[in-house]
């Protein structure tokens, strides 16, 4: 293979056009042709990473194997490509500045004035090329967060301008815009796209490919007009129609020849046709369900569904495996109480209690878990959801009314969930949780052993608290079994209920590892159990 090739993805006109999905779809098509591809995202905000952000700000925080807390678009990259990402795949302005300031304090700049250009832009360029320089990848796709014209994304655009010049034919720029439809006049409007391209060109970046989000098909004349006004080849004006599901987008992009146009511009061979048979099979099963099940998703951020992106996508993957439509009923944990649990939950196939931080909504989660435990409804508790299952069991089965997590109550005598030993000294919140992939050993004859079909697994974590081993014996004696442990520190990673058809709580986040071609067995097992109960 020759040099690594770079594709820069920017967005214009409005935010939320789906740059991440377009980048992931192009990555998927190139991978399906046999290229080694990775996708990275540069976020123009000042936080070092999204780990300290409230989900209302930015949706879910996605965690990689190496423990990086990253933007949720990295979840799409992994779900589409089934290639693990790492810290190098998500870099923020904050991290760039932190690195530069660190070098300045060390004296690395030898008395020079440290400036946005060239020092910040050089650091951006170094990070853009980091994955490319490993020799692992033929193509690196770099998505720039935000919208062209934002003040904060300017250094990134300038870095792209410089790299385009330095890399010549080894780089291309893809710009995603919107073609609004005016219902009153029945017209598709190209002016916002023209203006967006004009703005990008003022910064010195000329797009090679324009991907145009649109509600309606783009007639040839509209494409011609865009090509002419924006100085792009006609074949490089790509229509991106709204799709039923994000998983259709790679096929829509293939039909528009996005991958071919990109390969031609990068001088890469077109000889291999993309092998999308797995993908098409997945879509067929997803779009032709034979059964239906409703899963209640209980969390405190349900107003912003992006807060649970990987969970809802993992349920979609399970839905395709089982050819069972999964309808998610989003339930706000603060709305559940012992008195209304029956009304809210009785008709659900299964209940998933989501991860989270802090005490808001905890009592609702506990009321829901009591209901599913007593009514034999399949249950999957993730991280805080697992911790709540332990608290509920301690309160209502062991009769310890004060049982709690140390996170919620520092004075409970029965802190069945307690702070991890090495968390006690930690003062800073950013990047200091137990993060990333750890081993887990599964006990035989458990639901976990059955769904995973193996004894050793590796799952990703993001938490500070854990099951308190001081209470392990009492819990197990009454039927809350610990069926997965992290052997090095004897931490409980999976709990199950003895007398229940499907009750599993996991301290880790299985949702981060579910992909289209490798759906997660816990989600598949859970949805299967849920669909059996209600069929
Ligand atoms: N707040 C809990 C902890 O820190 C659970 C975290 C989570 O659900 N991701 O342990």
Give a verbal description of the structure.
This protein has 535 residues and is an alpha/beta fold. Helix content is 35%, strand content 23%. The strands form 5 sheets. It has a 9-stranded mixed beta sheet with strand order 13-12-14-15-23-22-21-18-19, with helices on both faces. A 7-stranded parallel beta sheet has the order 5-2-6-1-7-10-11, with helices on both faces. Strand 8 (181-182) and strand 9 (187-188) form a beta hairpin. Helix 1 crosses helix 9 (249-255) and helix 5 (116-130) crosses helix 6. The model has no long low-confidence stretch (mean pLDDT 95). Residues 355-357, 383-384, 407, 462-465 line the site of glutamine.
Which terms would index this structure?
single chain, 535 residues, alpha/beta, 7-stranded parallel beta sheet, 18 helices, 23 strands, 35% helix, binds glutamine
The number of helical segments is: 18
Order of adjacent strands in the largest pleated sheet: 13-12-14-15-23-22-21-18-19
Rg calculated over all Cα atoms: 25 Å
- Rounded mean pLDDT is 95
Bound molecules: glutamine
Give the low-confidence spans.
Answer: none
Using DSSP, what is the number of strands? 23
Helical residue percent band: 25-40%
Q: What separation lies between the terminal Cα atoms?
A: 53 Å
How would you sum up the global shape? Answer: globular
From the helix content, strand content and strand pairing, which structural class follows? Answer: alpha/beta
Instruction: Assess the beta-strand content as a share of residues.
Output: 15-25%
Largest sheet: 9 strands, mixed
In short:
By secondary structure, the protein is an alpha/beta fold. 35% of the residues lie in helices and 23% in strands. The chain is globular.
